[in-house]
Amino acid sequence: MAKRALITGITGQDGSYLAELLLEKGYEVYGMVRRSSLFNTDRIDHLYQDPHEPGTRLRLIYGDLNDSSSLNQILRQTAPDEIYNLGAQSHVRVSFDVPEYTGEVTGLGAVRILEAIRDLGLRPRFYQASSSELYGKVHETPQSETTPFYPRSPYGCAKAYAYYITVNYRESYGLFACNGILFNHESERRGETFVTRKITRAATRIKLGLQQKLYLGNLDARRDWGHARDYVEAMYLMMQAEEADDYVIATGETHSIREFLDETFGHLQMDWKPYVEIDPRYYRPAEVDLLLGDASKAREKLGWTPKVSFRELARLMVDADMKIAERERAAAEREGTPGGAASARWGAV
Amino acid sequence: MKRALITGIAGQDGSYLAEMLLEKGYEVFGLVRRSSNVARTRIDHLTQGQAAARAGDDPAARIHLIYGDMNDSASLHRAVRESRPQEVYNLASQSHVRVSFEMPEYTVEINAMGTLRLLDAIRDAALETRFYQASSSELFGKAATAPQDEHTPFHPRSPYAVSKLCAYWTVVNYREAYGMYAVNGILFNHESPRRAENFVTRKITLGAARIKLGLQQKLSLGNLDARRDWGFARDYMEAAWMILQQPQPDDYVVATGELHSVREFLDEAFGYLGLDWREHVETDPRQLRPAEVDAVVGDSSKARRVLGWRPRVAFRELVRMMVDADLELAKGEADKVRATDL
């Protein structure tokens, strides 16, 4: 019988890549989605089949990490072999605007699932999406599984709770529960308010004359950026290991926002300096230090290595966004309006 | 310049209301949830070019989006403090009745507790703010009498309706306890080309348009005998605004007073495209509500008398407007399909 997996956050960047991977491996995949009056399933539309068709292996279920009763009901209905908890308010700067909501969803959401597992007497394997933001104001560089945490945002604090509660359920109840401490991972599907995607969207739109300026925060921030598709493979590998454990997943390379700008605008034969302006509203109230991961443990125990390099990542994103920008230009020409609607997204929110 | 804060600005009603208030010269603040998929297509046309348009009387410079959540008290307090609104329109909710049976806890948190949190944020800020609550004809549910007016007893029949009942009474309570200008608009069903795609009316018009263009063969629906009082969302938002302009705070039913079944909606939508819906529609019991509401039809004489409000768009016009808009959407889709075929 096919293995069953439940993914929270399936409509997000990571959820969509993970759903793809698990479907390829023959899993039945259940995805939990929040209710919204606008459909937010763009990233998985290519995977989705009408549930009225026989043999569909991807199903979407309404639920919310704030709603214990919906979680209980979903676990009862799906009885999954593996649960991947990727649902979160995942934007660090926004977590300063909605700290309470972030704590509820990103922090307490994890314990609501773990409690539902315990109440129902199920024994699924549980994956918690932990984050390099746990290291925040770092104690040492590079960071590994033994580096102490120092979270620096409501997001980081909520993720710290989720991390420890996952460890706690492993130790207290013998549950197969693991944390993947993933460093930044980007892709063509990254949310448009994250800096990498914001840059590649803007660079391609500027190239086609659809936009004039790009407003950014701290250009000196340095991150360890990998490709999301590589990182969801690591999640899967962790869940197949004999013992549940926590792993750092990272490329081990660090690059600044400036370098990302160089790479993306350079790929389009442009200089970014005339287009980029600094808007202090995009600064985080507390910035994190240089995040650089040491993924030796994952390499040794899981045999995992990243496949996509920094340069390849930047170019993949630019190429994909160029196609979107071309469609926007065509639409704008049809309607006779300059710019297209997407420019609105670069406001403060 | 008057300032208004709209929760649920990215929804059907919020987008029409924002449009209207901008036309009237308001400065508009909108609360938006965070999502990794930016879901604001209904207001993109209003916020377009915002960063560039900070100067001059460009409506885009008069609309501001604020991150927040009805579950997050601190964010609501901040939104109220930052916007210092003369008028608050609380339109945010988990607004889908059938979905409320799947996530009852979330629905009550957002719809009921969210309203309470927002009222308290206004009270704490000690502002002279007028508060509009989006109440719903679903409050009547298993209605004792028809048509329903401001005096008809409530009998909610879903977690959605129960949560809206709690919000309704909280608004009345804050009006009576603290003398706040807080009112309920009890709006009957109101649709538009911006209705979400899993509400029955929009599902039908989008389905019909896609079937017409050969993009879809079947349309799967729940209860075809359900009967509703359907108006046009923009008309209803005009009523919401009028309600807040009255000297005395009061609650109003807003409705067309006409009742039509889902079948009639199908007749009208498919008929307009020269199609027979019976060849395409299947019924799916999964889409039935665990408890259905009766024929809810509103008596809005009070709104007509006191506010001078009347619906402008009739049933047939509404259906045709929605079909026309969805036909345009489906054509765009058809172009995309052809482009990929190449």
Q: Helices and strands in order, then pairings?
A:
The complex is a heterodimer of chains A (about 350) and B (about 350).
Chain A lengths: L3 E5 L4 H12 L3 E6 L24 E5 L5 H11 L3 E4 L6 H6 L1 H22 L4 E7 L22 H20 L3 E6 L2 E2 L8 H13 L6 E3 L5 E2 L2 E2 H13 L6 E3 L5 E2 H11 L8 E3 L17 H7 L7 H26 L14
Parallel strand pairs in A: 1-2, 1-4, 2-3, 4-5, 5-6, 6-11, 7-10, 8-13
Antiparallel strand pairs in A: 9-12
Helix pairs in contact in A: 1-7, 2-4, 4-5, 6-8, 6-10, 8-10
Chain B lengths: L2 E5 L4 H12 L3 E6 L11 H4 L15 E5 L5 H11 L3 E4 L6 H6 L1 H22 L4 E7 L22 H20 L2 E7 L2 E2 L8 H13 L6 E3 L5 E2 L2 E2 H12 L7 E3 L5 E2 H11 L8 E3 L17 H7 L7 H27 L1
Parallel strand pairs in B: 1-2, 1-4, 2-3, 4-5, 5-6, 6-11, 7-10, 8-13
Antiparallel strand pairs in B: 9-12
Helix pairs in contact in B: 1-8, 3-5, 5-6, 7-9, 7-11, 9-11
Describe it for me?
- The complex is a heterodimer of chains A (349) and B (342).
- With 349 residues, chain A is α/β, with parallel strands linked by helices.
- Chain A is 40% helix and 14% strand.
- Chain A contains 10 helices and 13 strands.
- A 7-stranded parallel beta sheet of chain A has the order 3-2-1-4-5-6-11, sandwiched between helices. A two-stranded parallel sheet of chain A has the order 7-10. Chain A has a two-stranded parallel ribbon with strand order 8-13.
- In chain A, strand 1, helix 1 and strand 2 form a beta-alpha-beta unit.
- Chain A is globular, with a radius of gyration of 20 Å.
- The termini of chain A are far apart.
- Chain B is of the alpha/beta class.
- Chain B contains 11 helices and 13 strands.
- Chain B has a 7-stranded parallel beta sheet, with helices on both faces. A two-stranded parallel ribbon of chain B has the order 7-10.
- In chain B, helix 1 (12-23) crosses helix 8, helix 3 packs across helix 5 (104-125) and helix 7 packs parallel to helix 9 (262-272).
- At the A-B interface, helix 2 and helix 4 of A face helix 2, strand 3, helix 3 and helix 5 of B.
